[in-house]
Amino acid sequence: MRIAVIGSGYVGLVSGACFSEFGVNVTCVDLDAGKIARLEKGEMPIYEPGLDQLVMSNMAAKRLSFTTDLNAAVKGADAVFIAVGTPSRRGDGHADLSYVFGAAEQIAQAMDGYTVVVTKSTVPVGTGRKVADIIRKTRPDAAFDVVSNPEFLREGSAIGDFMRPDRVVIGAETERAQNVMRELYRPLFLNETPILFTKIETSELTKYAANSFLAAKISFINEIADLCEKVGADVQDVAKGIGLDGRIGRKFLHAGPGYGGSCFPKDCLALVKTAQDAGSPVSIIEAVIKVNDNRKEDMAQRVIRACGGNVKGKTLAVLGVTFKPNTDDMRDSPALDIIPALQKAGATVRAFDPEGMKEAAKMMDNVVWSKDTYETMTGADAVVIITEWNEFRALDLPRVKSLLSSPTVIDLRNIYKPEDMSAAGFYYVSIGRAAVEPSDTAERRQALGTSR
Ligand code: UDX
């Protein structure tokens, strides 16, 4: 089997490398000659755990190669995957499909013999048919099928998600195309991964429905977290209490600063637009987006409140700026709203992130980037945890306390236990749980019969 993957971003690169690991002969294509040159030297353009080893070993085995020459890669390929970007179009929130359609035209010009053209990029319902129209118009003689095969890869664990997925969804409407896809995913058929063959539109919609549902779980638990704070409940326990119900499930119920990343914000917005255009609005997802947007502003206010209602002239130490750990991706990260709001309120923001600082520095001004966690905190008035990187989960608390000018920690990811933070002498504010004071203060106040 020989395939070409058009677009060597997160999705294209991970998919290409994983297919080559499955034994398929893969050529990854990208317009960016610099990127291709770096990949050929084994340098990854993105941070994804395990990707460099996978790329290197499959390149060495001559199953994986990189090129800017789309024609050469597509000629003779059994299948061509379109994995180019589909950003939100400026202004209206619709997915911008110009790269997908451009790729379809170029593929049509290059292909010889029966080819399966697979949309791997997240594309709105109906795009597969449009891709087929473009190919037919460009090359009326071509023998081909269009297939939709959405990715469900999480950044940071994308390789595991590809190799051991919960399911694979394939919108393929001819037996010939289904057979090619079956052959490509052979190792997964052998280990009995559920593989769903559907209509093209069904597969396209499944992707949006999956991501919107997950986003809904997050906005849901975030609103419940706010309510917990008002009524004196603990959101961690509520999440466990509902999540143990098999119909609900425990995953994706972590309250936090709101979802970000390259998929959820864009996909929720695109689903809303598609549904509006189809005259069948998804008002639940409209609300999910609104809750998430408001949340980011609320997070900045929460930090300001925790600092006594005013951060003017104060220095805040931010830990983590990426939208989640184990990635350098800053797209739609909550930090991009929270940090500027804090600066606007007069704070000096110092920050550290294990992988994201290079990207973040391009997107935010006047942040003082530190070289490590503890440098960030030295002399700061409070610590704000925005991303739950593992190294922030095991801070040397006495050292943190000694470095800060005031022992305040605002943890937007609930990675510490309130009682531990109180015992360690911190004023600790988290999400969906009561704020706690340093235990000695609390004891003193209790003795005096006063409260904060
Ligand atoms: C997501 C989907 O999970 C994946 O299947 C899809 O194909 C691409 O989009 P990804 O964007 O890499 O993957 O991130 P994910 O791990 O799903 O997290 C998304 C966002 O939600 C992050 O900002 C994360 O911090 C937030 N999140 C997640 C929560 O706030 N709470 C949770 O319980 C789970």
Topology:
Elements: E1 2-6, H1 10-21, E2 25-29, H2 33-40, H3 51-60, E3 64-67, H4 70-74, E4 79-82, H5 98-110, E5 115-119, H6 127-138, E6 144-148, H7 158-163, E7 168-171, H8 175-184, H9 186-190, E8 195-198, H10 200-231, H11 235-243, H12 264-277, H13 283-306, E9 315-319, H14 335-344, E10 348-352, H15 357-363, E11 368-369, H16 373-377, E12 382-385, H17 390-393, H18 397-403, E13 408-411, H19 418-423, E14 427-429, H20 439-448
Parallel strand pairs: 1-2, 1-4, 2-3, 4-5, 5-6, 7-8, 9-10, 9-12, 10-11, 12-13, 13-14
The structure holds uridine-5'-diphosphate-xylopyranose.
Uridine-5'-diphosphate-xylopyranose (UDX) binds at residues 151-155, 211, 214, 218, 252-254, 256, 259-264, 323-324.
Describe the structure in your own words:
With 452 residues, the chain is of the alpha/beta class. It folds into two domains: 2-198, NAD(P)-binding Rossmann-like Domain (Rossmann fold), CATH 3.40.50.720; 199-452, Rossmann fold (3-Layer(aba) Sandwich). The protein is 46% helix and 13% strand. It contains 20 helices and 14 strands. Helix 14 links the parallel strand 9 and strand 10. The model has no long low-confidence stretch (mean pLDDT 95).
Strand order of the largest sheet: 3-2-1-4-5-6
**Protein structure class:** alpha/beta
| Unreliable residue stretches | none
Largest sheet: 6 strands, parallel
Give the bound compounds: uridine-5'-diphosphate-xylopyranose
Report helical residue fraction: 40-55%
CATH class of the largest domain: Alpha Beta
Computed over alpha carbons, the radius of gyration is 24 Å
Tally of DSSP β-strands: 14
CATH overall fold name of the largest domain:
Rossmann fold
